[in-house]
Amino acid sequence: MLQRSIKSTVSRGLISEYPSVFEGRLEKLLAKLFPGYSDFRLYADAQVARQVAMMVSQDPIYDPACSPPTDRCLVSYWRPYLEVGGADSVLLFPILPFPGSFIPQVVCVKDPTLAADLPPSDCVSPLLLDLLIKSVSALMHNLQSDEAVAKRKDNPLEGLFETRGPYGMTHLPPSRYREFAQEALSLKVVLPPSADIPLITPGEYSKGDIALFLKLAEQFVTTNG
What we know:
The chain is an alpha+beta fold. It folds into 2 domains: 2-143, no CATH class; 155-224, no CATH class. It is 43% helix and 12% strand. The chain has 8 helices and 7 strands. It has helices at 2-11, 22-33, 46-56, 112-117, 126-143, 146-153, 174-186, 207-224; strands spanning 39-43, 75-78, 91-94, 105-109, 162-164, 167-169, 199-200. The protein has a 4-stranded mixed beta sheet, with helices on both faces. The radius of gyration is 19 Å and the shape is globular. It starts with a helix and ends with a helix. 27% of the residues are buried.
């Protein structure tokens, strides 16, 4: 689906960063996905997103995949299939499914007064916006299915690593994690660049696909203990 969209959007010359209809379409989707939030921003610069977070709280952004559970947090990441840091979160930073690390950071703002103080959205390539719209639409479709949600929460890494929903933290020291990631790559499993970033299990896999990776993970957990 994303490959077809890339070809279609590129053929229309929608690569450069300039205003487009896709901005409004994405905002409408985000309003459905996050009905408690009134305004939305898109920042291509991660530094701007961090500055926005610090305007509200000096604490680290709460991450439901790896932070200690809490029900009171002003600034939270949102990860599919997990709860956020409580209803007090006035800023929400969704981690949305997207191929690649060049996705703009979406910021959901609960208080219109706060929104007035934030920098305006960056101008983002219509190509990226179009792809993001399609991935968010697919995610929303999955979230409406109890069967799909239950499947994503059934984590095959449970018992080996600390898991929450489809996410996992290895807690391996940096050198061991690098070895683990390198050996996993030989099995065609791509892990995050460092151990402090939660890994996520794929939405679709067979037992055969993951069997060798689970065996490798067990070896690293055993030798690390």
